[in-house]
Amino acid sequence: MSTKTGPQRYPGASRANWYQDDFGGDPMQVNVVVLHTTEGPTLPGYGGGSSAPNLTAVPDLAHKKLKWYQHFDIETSSRALVNLRGGVDTNTMNVCQVELVGTCDPKTHGKWKAAGQAHVYWPDAPDWALHGVARFLSWMHEEHGVPLSGPKSWPTYPTSYANGGGQRMTAAKWTGFKGVCGHMHVPENVHGDPGAIDFARIIKYAKADLDLGDDTPETTTPAKPKVPAFPGRKYFVAGASNAYVLQLGKQLVKRGFGDHYKVGPSRAWGEADRLNVRDFQKSRKELRGDADGNPGPLTWRLLFS
After folding, report:
1. Rounded to whole angstroms, how far apart are CA atoms 202 and 9?
2. SS3 of 6, please?
3. Do 290 and 256 reside in the same domain of the chain?
C-alpha cells in the first residue's frame, strides 16, 4: 500500500464539501494532476460525493479569483474518472483530480452568454483564472513533485470528445505518464474536457510563480541560474535511494555543510544527510524554527539558490 507524503490539504481550500469520510479512497503517491471542467456554472453536488474529484475550483467573478473546495486528501483516490473493470487504473493510480467550474463547450458558452449567465469559458479564460490554476500546479510541483509538463495536444471541444482529436493516451502511455493532463487524455474516458484550455500559458505562469524560468532563450540579459525543481518530500525518507538524495548531498558539500559525511554523499538517504540538512537549516533564519533536517521546498530552494 502506498504511503502519503507531504501536505494533504491545499492551503485556503474549504472543506465544506468533504466526501472522504463517506467514500474513503486508496492512499497513493501522486505524480499526476488531471484537469476537468464541470460543464456547469456552480459548484456541483457530485451525487453526494460519489463522483467527486479531489478539489473543485469555483471562479469568484466579482473578486477575480478562484475559490477552492477540497473533497479528498491530495493523495487519496477520488471518483471523477471512468475506471472500467479489468482495465487500466485511472482514479486509483497516482492521480489528483481538479474540476474547474465552467465550460469548455462553445455551444454552452454561447447559450449562457445569451442568457446573461456569468461564467468562465475555459478555452478563453481570463488571466486571473489561469493564474489561479497555475498557483495550484506550482504548489503540487513543490510539495508533491508533479512535473510542470504535459501533453502537447489540447484539441477544441467537441473535437476532443471520444478521442476525436487523437489526444487520448494509450494504456501504456498513461501508466508511465507523470505531469498534468486533461480528462480528455485519460484512457477509458470519452469526455473531451477541458478542451482547448491555454495549457502552455498555465505552465508558464506556474514556472514563473516558482521562479523556475522557461526554455525560451534570453536575448537581452543573461539568464539567471535556475533552481532545480524540488522533487517532493517522499524522496527524502528512511529507506529512500535515488538521484535526488545524491544531488542534495553534493549541494550540501558545495555549500560547506557536509561535516557529517564519512565518505561523502550517496544515493541512500541516511542520518548523515539529515544532520547536514539540519546544519544548513540552522544557518538560515528562515528555517531555524523548523530545523528538523527534513528537506522541504523552502530548504531546497535556499540551498540551491
Report:
1. 21
2. coil
3. yes
Residue that the C-alpha cell 471518483 belongs to: 79
Per-residue pLDDT tens over the stretch 88-132: 999 988 999 999 999 999 999 999 999 999 999 999 999 999 999
pLDDT in tens, 160-192: 999 999 999 999 999 999 999 999 999 999 999
Sign of the C-alpha dihedral computed for residues 16, 21, 22 and 27 taken in this order: positive
Range of the domain at 68: 19-210
- 148 with 201, same domain: the answer is yes
Which residues is 37 bridged to in the sheet?
100
Domain assignment present for 289: yes
For the stretch 267-289, pLDDT in tens is 999 999 999 999 999 999 888 88
Tell me the CA distances in angstroms from 94 to 3, 28, 29, 71, 146, one per residue in order: 12, 6, 6, 17, 10
In sequence order, the β-bridge partners of residue 33 are: 96, 180
Whether 221 maps to a domain, the answer reads no
CB 246 within 8 A of CB 258: no
Answer whether residue 1 is part of any domain.
Answer: no
Instruction: For the beta carbon of residue 270, count every other beta carbon within 10 angstroms.
Output: 17
Residues 6+ apart with CB under 8 A from 164: 155, 158, 192
